[in-house]
């Protein structure tokens, strides 16, 4: 089992906060904001409490507080000021930093308070695209640099999944789905397990009144062939984060096209960063690539599409 990370380098703190290490050293020396321990070789190491305080300080600093003013506040006063600002602000970065605080402290209550406050004046599409997606990109960097452990990432990812599932159930219950349009089949290819993107696309498609079949992670092409016993026209949709890999992606798409798209009215819609490995000159014409959700919405969810 992965141990919870509790000791951080100044570079970790820079990655978390966005404040340069040089500036952090000045704040530490001039204002005594942080109290690192020293290793036997005189290298700074910061505790979890130091990190949480720095994220609080960063929230105030980015919201216009002078560092001299922040340094005069007690830890309790800093926390109170953060609570007052973070839960009332429209700033995406403040919301993201608050979610980071929730993650570091494994604090479901703070996560939910922050989420509920944003949802009170923004829709779920805004939260996912403008807060959750940038948050996950930042966490990816933090994970790669060792600033957080898989424990932290799994904690925050599962909370985000919960919110997607809640919103998805609401639209499933309350929206009349159009039975004339092609069904969207959402899946991840074999060995692909990063499902946030495909879960959100399922919610989005349902919210526009389209029928979906969500199959989830690591689905083999042969399993998808069985769908043709149910219907004869599908919009297959997938989100490629790490799989198929660079060597396998073009053979995968070729096989998908031959087994599921040729001689049908179906197509494959591809999202995700791994599409950068796709050879556009050899891409079958029934496979569409989308780098932005906005372009996909414009192409598929306008009323005139099937007119």
Defining traits:
307 residues, alpha/beta, Multidrug-efflux Transporter Regulator, Chain: A, Domain 2, Rossmann fold, 5-stranded parallel beta sheet, 3-stranded antiparallel beta sheet, 13 helices, 8 strands, 52% helix, 12% strand
Describe this structure in words.
The chain is an alpha/beta fold and 307 residues long. It folds into two domains: 7-169, Multidrug-efflux Transporter Regulator, Chain: A, Domain 2 (Orthogonal Bundle); 175-306, 3-Layer(aba) Sandwich (Rossmann fold), CATH 3.40.50. It contains 13 helices and eight strands. It has helices at 10-17, 21-31, 48-62, 67-71, 75-86, 92-104, 108-119, 124-144, 150-174, 196-207, 221-225, 249-261, 293-300, and strands at residues 7-8, 37-38, 44-47, 183-189, 212-219, 234-239, 267-271, 287-289. Strand 2 (37-38) and strand 3 (44-47) form a beta hairpin. Helix 3 (48-62) crosses helix 5 (75-86). The longest helix has 25 residues, at 150-174. The protein is elongated. The N and C termini lie far apart (55 Å).
């Amino acid at each position: 089992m992965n141990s919870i990370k509790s000791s951080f380098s100044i570079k970790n703190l820079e990655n978390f906060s966005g404040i340069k290490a040089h500036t952090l050293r000045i704040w530490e020396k001039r204002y005594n904001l942080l109290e690192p321990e020293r290793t036997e070789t005189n290298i700074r190491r910061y505790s979890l409490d130091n990190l949480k305080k720095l994220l609080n300080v960063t929230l105030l600093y980015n919201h216009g507080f002078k560092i001299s003013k922040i340094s005069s506040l007690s830890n309790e006063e800093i926390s109170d000021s953060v609570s007052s600002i973070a839960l009332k602000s429209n700033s995406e970065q403040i919301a993201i930093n608050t979610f980071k605080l929730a993650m570091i402290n494994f604090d479901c209550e703070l996560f939910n308070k922050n989420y509920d406050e944003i949802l009170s004046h923004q829709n779920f599409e805004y939260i996912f695209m403008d807060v959750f997606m940038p948050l996950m990109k930042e966490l990816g960097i933090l994970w790669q640099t060792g600033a957080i452990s898989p424990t932290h990432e799994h904690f925050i990812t599962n909370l985000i999944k919960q919110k997607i599932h809640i919103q998805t159930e609401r639209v499933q219950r309350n929206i009349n789905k159009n039975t004339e349009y092609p069904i969207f089949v959402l899946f991840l290819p074999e060995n692909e397990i990063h499902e946030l993107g495909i879960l959100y696309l399922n919610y989005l498609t349902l919210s526009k009144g389209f029928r979906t079949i969500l199959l989830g992670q690591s689905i083999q092409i042969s399993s998808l062939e069985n769908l043709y016993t149910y219907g004869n026209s599908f919009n297959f949709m997938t989100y490629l984060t790490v799989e198929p890999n660079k060597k396998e992606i073009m053979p995968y798409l070729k096989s998908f096209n031959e087994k599921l798209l040729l001689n049908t009215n179906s197509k494959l819609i591809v999202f995700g960063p791994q599409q950068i490995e796709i050879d556009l000159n050899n891409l079958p014409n029934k496979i569409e690539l989308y780098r932005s959700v906005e372009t996909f919405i414009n192409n598929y969810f306008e009323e005139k599409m099937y007119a």
